[in-house]
Design brief:
The chain contains three helices and ten strands; from the N terminus they run E-H-E-E-H-E-E-E-E-E-E-H-E. With about 150 residues, it is an alpha+beta fold. A hairpin with a 6-residue loop joins strand 6 (about 90-95) and strand 7 (about 100).
């Protein structure tokens, strides 16, 4: 059996909302997705990659929109991470237009991202509207990236 997990992460990978805001966001997400199998939240000690699972299609340069070779991207992922530190999100120079970007800046099809904080709903049975996402952003005090993972 497969699962669909919608994960909300701050656009700023190092941002961690206040505990009170985290609790309010969990309550709100339960209201927005009452049929979800599970609502999860957490804070990691280090910046972690949040992937879209089987939904992954491609990664592109945010400056010129050209697709980045997967081997190049995988090398960047390996270079940028370490077990003890997580992802540093250092700048890389893109081979397409020589733009300086971090892994978090790249355009992922489907969206993926990096964060310490995450909020998620497993098998919510719905897509979240822009208005729902704005409500969560207001509660958490940050702009959010929405990652739809299929596993």
């Amino acid at each position: 059996m497969s699962d669909d997990i919608t994960t909300f992460v701050p656009e700023d990978p190092t941002f961690v909302p206040a505990k009170r805001s985290q609790q309010a966001a969990v309550t709100m997400l339960r209201e927005l997705a009452p049929r979800a199998d599970e609502i999860t939240t957490g804070v990691d000690d280090k910046v972690t990659f949040r992937d879209c699972g089987a939904n992954f299609e491609s990664v592109s340069c945010p400056k010129c929109r050209r697709e980045i070779d997967l081997e190049t991207w995988q090398n960047w992922m390996s270079e940028d991470s370490s077990d003890g530190e997580g992802f540093r999100l250092a700048s890389f120079v893109t081979p397409c237009c020589a733009g300086a970007v971090t892994l978090n800046d790249l355009v992922y099809e489907w969206p993926q991202g990096f964060s310490r904080y995450h909020l998620g709903a497993r098998n919510a049975g719905r897509r979240f509207s822009a208005a729902s996402i704005r409500k969560l952003e207001e509660v958490l005090g940050c702009r959010l990236r929405v990652i739809r993972q299929h596993i």
